[in-house]
Amino acid sequence: MKLLDTTFLIDLLNGKIVLNKVEELEKNFKLFTTELNAFELFVGVFFLEQRKQKELMEKAAELLGRLEILNLDRKASMKAAEISANLIKKGKTIESNDCLIAGIALSNGIKSIVSRNEKHFKRIEGIKVEKY
User: Fold this and answer.
1) Which neighbouring-strand residues pair with 129?
2) What is the edge-to-edge ordering of all strands in the sheet holding 31-34?
């Protein structure tokens, strides 16, 4: 099981990663992302000019349709809060969204996140960051 982070999803939509990479991952792993990642992805799409929004919105919906989307529930919220508190105590604070994404992943048994955001996610105990 692997969770695809927003950086991967954005790079895929922007053509920096070929769709073959997703297909390669799908052959060997069940792929997930979170509603938070979907939110971050859509925020990026809405920053674009109107004519590009429609095209990328369709591509984003198609991409997300290939993945299992995990939601933030109470178990994930508690795990994310634990992650955040532990990082604050160590003086290694990261963005709340990253704590929430990691909390969702870990509470669903996912320990591997495919991301360029190694700087933040590597601070979280139990998460392995797979750079691409």
Assistant:
1) 113
2) 68-70, 31-34, 2-4, 112-114, 128-130
- Domain with 119 in it: what CATH number? 3.40.50.1010
* Statement: the pTM of the whole predicted model exceeds 0.90: yes
Cα–Cα distance, 96 to 104 (Å, whole number): 12
The tally of domains found in the chain comes to 1
Tokens 């709340």 belong to 96
40-58, pLDDT tens digit by residue?
A: 999 999 988 888 898 899 9
Query: Where do the H-state alpha helices sit in the chain?
Result: 6-13, 19-28, 35-46, 50-65, 74-90, 96-107, 118-121
Please tell me the distance from the alpha carbon of residue 87 to that of residue 94, in angstroms, as a whole number.
8
